[in-house]
DNA sequence: GTCTCTGCAAACCGTTTGCAACGCA
DNA sequence: TGCGTTGCAAACGGTTTGCAGAGAC
């Protein structure tokens, strides 16, 4: 799990300013080990910085993705979610409410090798998602 | 692979009219064993029916998905692609041009079982995509 | 003081909706 | 002939862009 200090260091090295908005966004993202939409981050950020704009959230979440501080998780028709950078893993998503949890399972390298062997593609990565119903939605 | 006759039969059973637009769209989709975006289907349809509107393509591709004649393939930030209904399989997509091919690999049921065992989710399905570079883009 | 960053407003673009005219059954 | 369908235009909604003023360093 990436530390706040490392993230701040990365910004400094690239001469990217540590604005209050960026600092607070890093604070939110690096705690909680969760998955947020842009809108959710905007709401959370607004609690401590009421004047922040959603443009700034977009600007910085994209910047953080480019810097490798944050990973974008894209899922079917749902809005992208973002998580603080950690080791590669898969995700389970609730089809009802969008709730998302991590799955730590060994990377399916042998399936990648198979896909490469039967295609004319040079395979570089793969993505695996699970769909289901979370316990909260199950009860309803 | 679903036949045109079966598709037409499904429409009849549900009292859905077989308009020329629908017939031609089924013709395009059921041949070629490819993956198309809405825009691509619209272009192809326009070759034989110049007056067709993109609204009609949206209406019918969504209808066909609901009827199970067509499967929507959603991929990260890319536009959805659609394929004629066939047995479940995975996809490889070219990160450069979006070119897509099928991968017939046994469903990863044991990974689903694992995901279920370590989460509080009732897992119903999963999705696996491979990313890479197709031979065309490799040469460039 | 400089130059990046913020935040507002407008643009963007794929998709959906409303609706009047059309045409399949 | 009736009602489902088409196709136009407008609306929609998440995201990006342009830009003038603010502010980090």
From TrEMBL, chains A, B:
Any Gene Ontology biological process: negative regulation of DNA-templated transcription
Alphabetically ordered keywords of this record: DNA-binding, Iron, Metal-binding, Repressor, Transcription, Transcription regulation, Zinc
Residues noted as binding Fe cation in the record, renumbered to the chain: 126
Names of the cofactor(s): Mn(2+); Fe(2+); Zn(2+)
GO molecular function: DNA-binding transcription factor activity; transcription cis-regulatory region binding; zinc ion binding
Pfam families documented for this protein: FUR
Binding site for Zn(2+): 94, 97, 134, 137
Cofactor: binding details: Binds 1 Mn(2+) or Fe(2+) ion per subunit. Binds 1 zinc ion per subunit.
Family to which the UniProt record says this protein belongs: Belongs to the Fur family.
Family matches, as PANTHER family: PEROXIDE-RESPONSIVE REPRESSOR PERR (PTHR33202:SF8), ZINC UPTAKE REGULATION PROTEIN (PTHR33202)
The protein's name in its UniProt record: Transcriptional repressor
Provenance organism: Niallia taxi
